[in-house]
Amino acid sequence: MELTPDEQATYDGERGPVHQKAMEILVALGKIYGARSLVPVTSVQIAGVSYKNLGMPGKEFIRWWVDHGARVRRLATLNPAGIDRKRWKELGFPEEFSTHQREIIDDYAMLGIEPTCTCAPYEIGNLPKFGDHIAWSESSAVSFANTYIGARTNREGGPSALAAAIVGKTPCHGYHLDEQRAPGVGYDVTATVRNEADAGALGIVAGRDVGSRVPFFSGLPPFETGWYKQLGAAMAASGSVALYHVDGQTPEARAKTVRPPEETRPVESLDPAYELLNSGGERIDFVSLGCPHASLEEMHRIAEMLRGRKVVVPLWITTSVATAAQADEYGYAAVIEGAGARVVCDTCMVVSPIETFGYETVATNSAKGCYYLQSWCGVETRYGDVHSCIEAACTGRWPQ
Ligand code: F3S
Fold first, then answer.
1. Residue 375 alpha carbon to ligand 1 centre in Å
2. Atom of ligand 1 nearest to the CA of 140
3. pLDDT digits over 221-251, tens only?
4. Final residue of a domain: which of 209, 244, 275?
5. Helix (H) or strand (E) holding 225
């Protein structure tokens, strides 16, 4: 890897141990992935926040940077944590877990990172422009930034994102390069895609098939923003897709800077995905919406569906503090909470210690959520659109 004189001096320790360690992380990764140089980034999004994932070793890793006076030099925001910082007690999060979690978030904030705790940073001001090089780490956010915005990021790990925020650069390889953004396999979709759940189901079908290639979808109806979130999140969970293109819709496909690949496969049915994601029975214990974190528009729609109704099983709508504050301002949060549901901030069903809550079957409109609830949290799931999930919350049963 070629380093500039300034980068080399940092690597050699002339700017102290913090910058040296951050540069060592970036150079090590750059060598592994064959990067020729570093590229400046305009923004960073840091995963590796929940105490459920980090445990004590991760917590001590972050403390090292605090103890050595590290500060980030780019806009950097945090991924969801394991608790709602404000309402953790009321929502039943374990006390010891919550204490560790709050200390981790405080440590990140000491580094100059915005403690936003969201996987939808683009909803709340961490919004790159087309062509910007960035270093983001949460898989659905990475997919959204690459695909919908046309920014350029690999899927960073928590430590490499932190290192990028401190140095202000990231190794230039993978999706930072034009040639790596070219689609490798096309999916001609004749299956019906009507809503966010179908988009997520399509993500499961394609994610399990595509391998390490970039998918290119054709035949899709005009997509709503939330459908991109679900399709990308599902493909990131079921495969390792960090970028996709939609014919005539995503920016690089519209600009024709990427061309349809020669190999195209048909997608005639989403049934295999629905079968996989509906592992649970009819009785529902818990309903979760807001994976990826809900936008203001999604909160509005959910509030309208809940107006005048009451939930009979817990319903969480997970989002950021900033979006929740807007939902509060416009009265959506009052309607949601008036129905007995909860606007839950900073966390989600997957990165919170949900397995300690004793739920057996969780309903959600997130294919990614189902995927991880089944595989990581040992919980059965029911999967469908937001209407089905609201119905399940208000009746305790999955609608026929
Ligand atoms: Fe976000 Fe949690 Fe879903 S981090 S994408 S809400 S699993």
1. 14
2. 5
3. 999 999 999 999 999 999 999 999 999 999 9
4. 275
5. helix 225-238
